[in-house]
Amino acid sequence: MANEASFCHVFLSFRGETRNKFTCFLYEALRAQGFVAFMDKTDIRVGDEVSLTIKEGIRNSMSAIIVFSKNYADSTWCLDELVLILERNRNSRYFILPIFYEVEIRDIRHQLGNYGLALEKHKARHNDKIEKWREALVEVSNIFGEHVEGLQSTFIQNTVKLFRERLAAKFPECRLPTQQVPVLQGSSSSSSSSRHESSEDKIILYTTTSVTDVAGALKKILRSGNVVYEERNCSIEPRYLRELKDLVGNDKVRFPMVIVNGKDLCGEEEVEGFYDAEVKQKLIGSLMYHYYSQRFASHFQATMSNAMFRRYW
């Protein structure tokens, strides 16, 4: 924690309820693009005051992303973080990007619903802070932010892009991390490191137009585990097929196929970089079941007759 409290591009403020659903994936997406992000590692808070490490994280950051969720205001720590972030914003060159996760701006601005109930609950022990918290909620609700909508993986990619643009505009004199562009494979002379670059820190579902039913089932499994992934249709983009062959080997290509950090999910017991081990194990078990069940085996045999694709069991 001490090292993490040194310089960072962005401080992430969030309630623990979004950690494994959204915030950890945003954190990893920022890191994958070379940004230094501060994300508190624990949901256990002792005492009533924000820790020195959190204060240093805010003070030493260039910006803050605040993930507002339904129960954000239930945490006095989150409210104190918000006050500190806004003070930092008023007193120095800084920018704030609010993200609204399953919550409406009007609830934050006018302290409606859970936000109103939370502040009423806090009055008993923190009446001296209530007015400051209310003012902070009103102030931050007037800052342009983003609502989490659509496919979460796409939203996170767009958010990281927006973050880069706004950070560059705010600090034009600073050299930002080099933007990493996926490298698609078309040459056998590519090095091993560049060959896997397109799948670094990513979960990718490779599909074809002939396995839409099975791919749909896998998408439901991925979404049920709140897993951020990208779908690549090899029938529409032949370069994805070349990329997949480079990743797993020409003789091991099958469809649909889930790749995590350049490795076949069903071929690896441990996949480095997958944030939540419990979700990972649940996902692996579900995928293994669906891949090898008799229900899909006959369907695969019928749909995989096209000679351009090879599969194995």
Automatic annotation (TrEMBL):
Database matches in Pfam families: TIR (PF01582)
Keyword Nucleotidyltransferase: no
Location of the TIR domain: 6-167
InterPro entries linked to this entry: Thioredoxin-like_sf, TIR_dom, Toll_tir_struct_dom_sf
Any one biological process term the GO annotation gives: signal transduction
Keyword DNA damage in annotation: no
Keyword annotations of the record: NAD
Name of this protein: TIR domain-containing protein
Species this protein is from: Daucus carota subsp. sativus
Lineage per the UniProt record: Eukaryota, Viridiplantae, Streptophyta, Embryophyta, Tracheophyta
